[in-house]
Design a protein that fits this description.
alpha/beta; Rossmann fold; N-acetylglucosaminylphosphatidylinositol deacetylase activity; N-acetylglucosaminylphosphatidylinositol deacetylase; LmbE-like_dom_sf; EC 3.5.1.89
Length: 167
């Protein structure tokens, strides 16, 4: 089962890299923009993930792209990932990843909400997620939110709940 996760992670990274090669520039462009006209330069962007390690497994190419373009990137991690009792270790690993990915640590926020605990059997309330994310958007004047697709990238129920809560 672990090999499937590794293969799917590598595939996601490969696809993200391919997309950058085909549609991106090799040199950072300070006026890079999305097709809808949202310019990235100095925008407030928030990445919303369910657990520590999601940023590295699914979004590291995106984080690198955004930080290289001068975006003001915030990361909101909705749990400490304590399903196996390693939440504090996982938090520290996310901080270390953010240091490598050039995300200021003061722009990384964890929640340890009793209704948002890590686990395959844990269903997260979409209204609660919408409220929490909405408060963060207002607090940091966020222009763009990035998160999971409707499948949750890997199919994890917490990832899917984050998607639906933000929608």
């Amino acid at each position: 089962m672990a090999w499937l996760l590794v293969i799917s992670s590598l595939l996601a990274l490969w696809l993200a890299s391919l997309f950058k090669i085909l549609y991106g520039s090799c040199s950072p462009s300070k006026d890079a923009s999305f097709s809808n006209g949202v310019t990235l330069n100095k925008r407030n962007v928030m990445l919303v993930v369910a657990h520590p390690d999601d940023e590295s497994m699914f979004f590291s190419p995106t984080i690198s792209y955004l930080t290289s373009r001068g975006c003001n990137l915030h990361i909101l991690c909705l749990s400490i990932g304590d399903a196996d009792g390693k939440g504090n270790l996982r938090k520290e690993e996310l901080y270390q990843a953010c240091a490598v990915l050039k995300v200021p640590l003061q722009q990384v926020k964890f929640l340890d909400h009793p209704d948002l605990q890590d686990g395959f059997g844990k269903v997260w309330n979409h209204d609660l997620l919408a409220k929490i994310v909405g408060e963060e958007v207002i607090s940091h004047d966020i222009d763009l939110i990035i998160t999971f697709d409707s499948y949750g990238v890997s199919g994890h129920c917490n990832h899917r709940d984050v998607h639906h809560g933000i929608r």
